Give the backbone structure.
Amino acid sequence: MKVTINGAAVEAKPGSTILDTVREHGLDTIPTLCHMKDTEPFTSCYVCVVEVEGRRNLAPACSTPVSEGMVVNTSSPRVRAARRTALELLLSNHWADCVSPCLTGCPGNVDIQGYLALAAQGKYAEAVELIRERNPLPAVCGRVCVRACEDQCYRAEIDECVSINWVKRFLMEQEGVYDKLPPRAEPTGKKVAIIGSGPAGLTAAYFLGLWGHEPVIIEAMEKAGGMLRYGIPEYRLPDEALDREIDFIKKASGCEIRLNTRVGNTITLAELRKTHDAVLLSPGAWGGKAMRVEGETDTVGVVTGADFLVANALNRSSLKGTVVVVGGGNTAMDAARTAWRLGADRVIILYRRTRMEMPCDSLEIEEALEEGIELMELAAPVGIERTPDKVLKGLRCIRMTLGEPDASGRRSPIPMDDSEFILKCDLVVSAIGQEPILTGLNEGLGVTRWQTIDTGSDTGVETNLAGVFAAGDAGYHGPTVVIDSIRDGRNAAEAIHGHLTGTRKKTPFRASKGFWEKPGRDLLPEREEKPAIKQGAIHAEHRRSMDIEVALPIDAAQCADEAARCLSCGCVRYDDCDLRLLCEEYGIDMDRFRGKTARERVDESHTLMVYDANKCILCGKCIRTCTFILMKPALGFVGRGFDTRVRPAMDLPFGETDCTGCGNCTDVCPTAAVSVKLPWPGRACLHHEDEDAVCNICSLKCPVTLRHYSAGTIAVGRDSFLCPRGRFQTPGGPDIRVEGSPEEADVIVLSPADRRWLELEFTPMAARVKAAESRGVQVVGADNPATAAGRVCRLTRG
Amino acid sequence: MRKLLVGTGTCGLSAGAGKVIEALRNNPGEYELSGTGCIGMCFVEPLLEVRDGDSRRIYGEVTPELALSIASGADPVDNLVWSDDGRGSHADFLEKQDRLVLRNCGVINPDSMDDYIATGGYEALRMAWEMTPGEIIQIMKDSGLRGRGGAGFPTGMKWSFAASAAGEDKYIICNADEGDPGAFMDRSIIEGDPHAVIEGMFIAARAIGAANGYIYCRAEYPLAVKRLENAIAQAGERGFAQGVHLKVKMGAGAFVCGEETALFRSIEGKRGMPTFRPPYPAEKGLFAKPTNNNNVETYACVPWIVRNGVKAFRERGTEKSPGTKVFALAGKVKRGGLAEVAMGTPIRHLVFGIGGGIKKDKAFKAVQMGGPSGGCIPEHLADTPVDFESIPATGAIMGSGGMVVMDETSCMVDIARFFLNFTCDESCGKCTFCRVGNRRLLETLERITAGEGREEDIPFLETLGRQIIDGSLCGLGQTAPNPILTTLRYFRNEYEAHIQEKKCPAGSCRALIKFTVNPETCKACTLCAKACPVNAVSGQRGQVHSIDQHKCTKCGACYDACPFDAIIRE
């Protein structure tokens, strides 16, 4: 039979479908979500539609048989638009998180769920490797990060968010985490000059080096680290920790750091552009903003926060008397607490709003107050009292009151009439903001009206000069936090890599529940309340030294406990979800069909599998597979219209159906609506690697794919059904943890309580338990109150 | 002997015919008493017919007391709706029809096989026994009969496919899963003349060589099911079955089960979900066997055609759509009920000639044809003839015969919303476009009727609507956007008024209307205050009334109650 597909005349087998024919001749990759090889077409997803000449409607390629002389177009604009609409419609009712909300919340997009899972298993080095895939400064962030990730944590709906950052800091203090260098790509011979060795510059250098380029960092100061070293005081970030990170970055990326070299003095931007293939500007924001009071620039005893911190980082001074710090950000906190540590008798933080509105980390305020630092709210400086020879005597201030909220949502301060007063002091540190100093760099460089480098947007990195990029505090957004600079550094590295190699990275598609609404407690997994681990701190009276780090690390047990609190919100099929990958390919717009979504709690009742109805696209593959295996399928369609669902039989919890636990439904599911319950805590990890293998359990030797996650391995069927043993007992499959011995126990306690998992196990341990039971030893569930009696052997699965 | 017939179709019974027949039964007199099917005058049920020798008189809105007095010889002229001497207030309702399928409805006792045989019943089947299957099919082809379920596929051709399909086991199906809101033709045919359907099926079974058949009837039609089962049993006893086993299969009322592939799955005991065609039913239908599936009305036409001949059939209707069509008239029409006319009759004849015009003589705005799959035909196209060519050209479809009449107070956006809401509920949920796409259309219409429409909504409705038609498996999904697309075609200004001016020109969308009292014309009669269910109208007799806008639920009861048109709806 002759048919024409995309202009090519091909021979087609009579009775075959358009999809078969297109695949047989390799003419196109028609996507489909509901079609299963060697089974009757189901025709539900309508992602496979094609245009057939002479037909009014589009035809589903999976079901439409070829006919003599048929003319088919598989990728016309109409076809692509229909496929895109189908995907957008599916996604408009896909209340699911492709990645965990913490990952999305983290500007650096670190796979937090992944490293928490590894941390819970004690795989510290692997956990750190995973962090460094996105962030080469984990020890720094483990101390000073503002933890946007924790703000997004769903666990807060149950009790408290996971203390992600304390786990990270713990990880960075474990042995061996600085030993193994990540693999480096073949050298490309491309040179990149990076101005400034702060977090943005270091991050860019790290990734550029790993990708085969030659980064050179030009640093004006005598040591590398930028504001990490000169802005953040040592009691928060010890030099030793920073040095370790910088050393690692240098070793891993092979980058050179040229110290004591200020661009504009010994070398110019124009020269760098000539001698390098690309230049990254990441000089930071070292200039203190003016308070706009008379005399602030020429009075002895009035300094800016940045200058004060830098000066003391270079050469510690000692202080006496009263120090007034003006401002409410982290720099103000650092300056105040540094002043106290340097010996000031009294330190006052002057802030024009109230503590509620202070932009700094709230923990910083608490610790400062513990140290006896005073907080004077609702007051602002209006003038400087000084001696005729311009030596500071005091700060003239005015009381403020709060008015209406401004554009940022914060209530704006309004001066109160006749409320001026004088604060006697010996040093005023004005820490009300910083700005970049672009002297020596502004040769034709586009600059915003805030004196930052113009890159078009907050996340943009390209400047108006060809081959010149910008990142960090000097970038478009101006001074910000460390993790934002790390994000910029990575973005800049990616842009530079693209610039140097002529490639372009695809933006990953990611659905998130938060697009509609975050889940409340009723829709989150059921967990017992368990508050977060609190990081310890040195008592305030022992803190009065710049060299004593205030925060105390957590220990290994606390780390495991805390990591295990993670709800693992990210999808286990991120890497190979057919739906997500198609959405990425077709560049779908989530907003186009925004409307009502179904929202359900995930069914975790099955010991081996998880059923998440929110991710179901009703392709029916699981039902068809189950119908093939069982006489009475454990899953079926219920309801009508928009409310149609795939449900466990008789609407029972999945674990209480007649499911035999073969798990073949998980192989065919195009998303993760039914998925294997990953047998390790945290159920982590975005990425996996597949390895073809053969099941060795019986003589049939079924083909299996071993799916290696960083946390462990599961078995997946390949081209054929797998039995429960093959799937769940392949090496790396679920295991049983045992406390005590079944041979010596009076009672054997199973957790989870449902004993069917034991029936499905074919391990020697399961045999030992069954033998014990046949001798009369009681086997009970963990929910049985009688478990306390006698010698207990406890079995925990997964 | 005088004969009294009470219309005991579902329409009659729900109007109180049960009590009428009971009263007559309890007071026997000089007459023979019988039930009959629906004669179509649903607007004046319960109906009582008196047959005296050759004369026939039908009385409407009959109470048990009135029935007794009629039985004892009275002739209450006020209640006389039709008589064979031309009297009766609604005599023209029947005169303006051409009753071919409905020939026996309301005339014979549907439970009586003898009644049916007396009208010539089963003669066609006897004739068919003398013919070869090929000859029967040729008659069907020559007659030009087209499927009355809505699509209008030539019946003879369909039969020939099933007849020539390979395989011994073949099935014959009657689709009686009538589901369009406002449609009740099939129910009335079965209730009024079940044997006609069964005879038609026997003829079809002989033509295609089927030994087994199902009548798929919704369980909400218990009377129809009962009459069918009774008729099948009677036909079997009299030897008409000739080895053809017919069975009534009750459906649970899912609209989508009217789609033939879903109907087969339902008979098979599976979830009623359509499957892709090909394979077509003639090749692989019920239980994967060759199957012929026709609608009730189609089968009811078959014996008539065989007995009266192709020529007589073709004398009615048009060249391409011969014969007649039964319509269920409903909505804002004075005489709602069942009407059969020749194909090609203008819509206007149905609405004004038979239907008697619009209730309260309001302005005629449109008819909705084809139910949720159909569309709205505006007043200016009311001269469109009803046939399989002309109706689809308007954007609507013939459908199975539901015709909902709309007047000036019907909001076309709300009508579209109503039908879409129906399809959304009734979608089987299989295809992406139908399951999610229609829901998004509905959400948009809900927003528009709630006064939250946006400028981009109209292009959104059109684009997505077309894509749903393009990307759905079965007729339900492929036609679901029709109510929107046709109302957009003819009543776009109403959509624009809702979106741009936040006004409902028909005064029907509650979120967009407001009731106030016109103090100039208010006579302070308190009727509106009495009608208001939420006590939102204040003012006593002699005191101009006013409406508390916070309490008002915009039900319109005051508007309807005011005899002086002093309630303003805007």
Summary: The two ends of chain B are 60 Å apart (CA to CA).
